[in-house]
Specification:
The chain is 24% helix and 25% strand. The strands form two sheets. A seven-stranded mixed β-sheet has the order 5-4-3-6-7-8-9, covered by helices on one side. It has a domain at 60-195: Rossmann fold (3-Layer(aba) Sandwich). The chain is an alpha/beta fold and 207 residues long. Helix 2 (19-27) crosses helix 4. The longest helix is centred in the N-terminal third of the chain and has 11 residues, at 59-69.
């Protein structure tokens, strides 16, 4: 990473104090996960087009989401919406030797991400409807949804460990970042403000 890119990238973190996230951002090369014509913009704080009308989120949004997830080494993570694989790679670096199970519904994107993530041995990628989760490998310590949901995806709560966290953007035009923490009694829900994501596809996505 060039010096000017590094300086620009540092601004992305704002007042973030989480060293694990910062280290992951500098280790995972964002340009690997974007299309050729956009590689020159890889270290700017912007969302970039990938394939099939989808995007790779802007770094500052990813920083917020990873911080809210409270990631730790050894955790088991389920990601709904692999996209290009960039977010999966960041999570992988933070939680290894834990595992990331990531689902992408769009076949072309699945193949793109699979190729991008080839060197990451603790990431398992699936081509299916992510809104249904992945029951065969449950329960998970964390579940992150990287596309806008029409409603809080309660169908995924059963796949969480107790004290597990589900993070999902919920809403139509703009989304509230919803953090659900599973408890013995049920769950607690917190709202962390407005964002804008592409829409979730599949059974529990937008019709």
């Amino acid at each position: 990473m060039k010096k000017e890119e590094k300086i620009g990238f540092l601004r992305t973190f704002g007042d973030l104090k989480n060293e694990k996230i910062i280290k992951a951002f500098f280790k995972v090369k964002r340009e690997t996960f974007v299309l050729g014509e956009y590689k020159k913009l890889a270290y700017q704080d912007v969302a970039l087009p990938i394939l099939c009308g989808q995007t790779i989120s802007q770094p500052s949004t990813i920083v917020i989401m990873l911080d809210l997830l409270e990631l730790e080494k050894g955790q088991k993570i389920l990601e709904i919406g692999t996209g290009s694989g960039y977010n999966s790679a960041l999570i992988s670096e933070i939680i290894k030797p834990g595992k990331v199970y990531t689902i992408e519904i769009i076949k072309e994107l699945y193949e793109f991400a699979k190729n991008n993530l080839e060197k990451y041995k603790n990431i398992l990628i699936f081509n299916k409807d992510g809104g249904l989760g992945l029951e065969e490998d449950m329960p998970y310590d964390r579940i992150i949804v990287t596309a806008a949901c029409p409603d809080i995806p309660y169908q995924l709560v059963d796949q969480l460990n107790e004290n597990g966290i589900l993070l999902a953007p919920v809403g139509v035009k703009y989304q509230d970042m919803i953090k659900l923490i599973k408890t013995k009694e049920g769950y607690n829900i917190r709202n962390y403000g407005k964002f804008e994501f592409v829409k979730l596809k599949g059974e529990f996505g937008f019709k």
